[in-house]
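Below: protein 1.
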Amino acid sequence: MTSSDDTTDLRAKAHNDYRALKSKLERLDDNSIDLILREARSHYAWKDTAIEESTLRTLYDITASGPTSMNSCPARMIFVNTPAGKQRLAKSLKEKNVDKMMGAPVTVIIAYETEFWQSLPFLFPHEDRRAFFEGKPDYIEDTAYRNSTLQGGYLMIAARALGLDVGAMSGFSNQIVDEEFFSGTTLKSNFLCNIGYADETALFQKLPRFSFEDACSFA
C-alpha cells in the first residue's frame, strides 16, 4: 500500500502535470479529429507494408494509458503478424473475412483476463479492492468484457493517431480463437482488429450516422 505522504505527493504531481498539459494543448485541431474519428474509415484492403515492432510497442503504450474502471486493465492483446499465426487465426473466421485478415500486416486479438482482479494491488495500490470481485463470476465477466472493449477502442484511435489504419472484425468464432490461442489460460477473446496501411481503393461511401436529435437527449 502507498503511504499517505506518498499519495499526497503523487496527487500534487498529477495536478501539476495535467495543468502543464492543458497549458500546452487545450484541444486537438480539426484535422487531427478528422484523422482519428470524424473522417476516419474502417478498412478492408491493405498495402504490402510491414509495421515495425517498435510501432506496435508504442501503440500498446498509448492504449494502456486509457482509463478503465478501478484501473483494472483487463485487456490482453496478441499481435498476429506471422504466416503461421495468420493460418491459426484463419480457422476461426467467416469466409468473407479471411482475405481481409490475411492481407493485413497485423491482426490484433483483443482478449480479456478473467483473473484481472488479482492484479489490483499493483494497478490500484491505494486500496485493495479484490474483495469486490472474489466469488462474483458475473461481475468479473461484465467488468472484464466491458473494459477490454473500451481498451480495444483506445487501440483503434491510437493506431489512427500514429498514422495507421484499422478495420475491426467480429465475424469469427470466439470459441475457436480461445481454443487455438488461449487453451489452458484464463483469457477469453473479445474481438479482432486488422491494422496496417490501407489500400483506400477498396472503400465505398461512408454510411449514415444518427443525428444528435435522433440519438441524444437531456435529463
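Below: protein 2.
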Amino acid sequence: MIKNILTEPEPILRQKGRDISPDELGTPKLEQLTRDLIATMYAKDGVGIAAPQIGQSVQICAIAREHTPEQKSDLVLINPVWIKKSLIKVSGEEGCLSVPDVFGKVKRYKKIKVTALDPHGKKLVFEAANFPARVIQHEVDHLNGILFIDKAKDIYRTDNLL
C-alpha cells in the first residue's frame, strides 16, 4: 500500500530506528512493510526509501532495482551497516522525499562495503560504488536520524524558482 511520506520536522525522522530482531524476519508484518516501502518509493518517484519516512522507526530501507547493479529486483536492506572502501569522497546533488523541493550538494564516499540482511534473514555482503553507494549512504543516514540537509552545502529550494 502506498503510504504518506513524512516530512521535516516530523520527529521520527530524527530518531535512530531500532534493529529488526531475528524473530521478525520473514513475518507477514515485515513482508507488508517491505511491500509498502517499495510501492511508496515508486509512487513518489524515489530511488530509495527508509522506513522512518513512512512512520516506522526500524532499520529497513529499499533501493530501486535500476540503481542496484547485479540485482534483478529492488534491494531491501535490514539492519544495514556500511564501511568506506575508498578515501575518495565525491560531492553530488541530493534531494529527499522527506524534504520536498530542497536540494544541495553532499559529499559521500565513492565506494562502500555493505553488510545487511534481506527480508528472509539471509546475510548480504557487497560493495557499491558511485550513485548506488550514494543512495545507500543516504538511506542508512535516514535509519540513524540524519537527513541530507544536515550534511549538504549550497542548499536551495526549487519552489522559490517558480
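Residues 28-43 form the longest helix (16 residues).
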